Hints:
By secondary structure, the chain is α+β, with helices and mostly antiparallel strands.
Amino acid sequence: MKNSLLILALSLSLSLSAPAVEFSDILNDPDNIELNEQFAKQRIIKGDLSAALSAVERVLIQVPMNVPFRLLRAELLINLGNDSLAHNELVGLKKLPTSSDQKLMINRLLLSIKDRASLSKNKISIGFGVVGSNNTNTYPSAGLLEFVAGEVSSTNTYNSYGGQDFQVSDRAGQTTLSFTNEYDLANQNNDVLISSVSARLLSGSKADYLDSMSTSINLGLSANRFGINWMPRVSYSKIKADNSASLTMKSFHLNGYAPINNRASANFKLEKTFLDYTNDTNFTNATQNDGQLKNIALGFNYALQSNLIASINHSQGKFDPDSSQFNTDSLAYFSSIANERETKSTTRALVYRLTKGSRIQLSHTKSIAKHKNKDPTSLKIQDDSKSIKSITFVQSGREVSELLKNWQFSMNVRRSINDSNIMQFDYKRNDWSLFATYFINL
């Protein structure tokens, strides 16, 4: 079982300017409550839960009725695999006067112990919402794919109208369905296998630019080694839109996360994605966009204060087209090699946690894509500069009403501008979405 919200909350309550406490300090003053408290929280951040538990128990010898630290002891015991002692602690806590938040945490921890009896945990999520854009004609047509920070987004390469003010505003309903299984390998490292199947449907747009259907299968692992949380994953996805050719994507990912100190953490991402388009009667040249993307990303997060985190992520990607399927003197071949490019992207973000269940995120992504070969239509080598500014708000339904405890609500507004040396690829677009997700634990 991974560290959960209580440990995170208590860890973040540690003074960010507090000096590091070493074990030698504890040996010199083992009964110092404040010293043990600081030491425990710092050990939690570093992932040394056994040392943290020892410090917590030293505090409880001095103040046995300290409810927050008894809760923390129970959660540490759960994370260390000692469910029996944790259960006894929680049953004892239920007999004491506690706040509503503490009662809720006690029940959650007791439920987690019950869930651990089964190594397999299943969850279903169902989502409903609306998405919209004021320039949907820049959505998928038969155009090239852009890659920003490893994420795939599509833009229309034929209907941007050379930078003219032609725009089509539209909106569509969005429905999602996913099933996730987490299988605890029950080893000392708390490794978990994670598999999921998901589907997403966009429908009802008037101009068809937004309508699409996508399905995805994912298989991954969460494992902690050498102080790093490793998350390898493979995925298989199929996308079909009314205004673009069918696309199959196969991806291999390796994500990692590591705390640096009580303020900072670092993360990285390595990925390789294979794109395979299907020609049909409407899109006879779709396969000229086939190829593979290689991407590497590094990120750094810094807590300005306990509820305010700044981050910066930089990625570099390379797209290699699959031009070997075409004759070297054909237009399809020259269109294919024109897609070869290198992309550099930087994202700066600020996340402010308003309450335990709500947060707002501001982000700004700037990317540069440099192509290697001439576009066969304009006979120019394309260079693009793209900017994406985004605001996202997420709210837990539990904070609104107990009747909404299994719901999560989100809202996003985004402004995208692509500035290319080939006017055909210029566009500006404002997008928005409103979404509600219902979670079912099986």
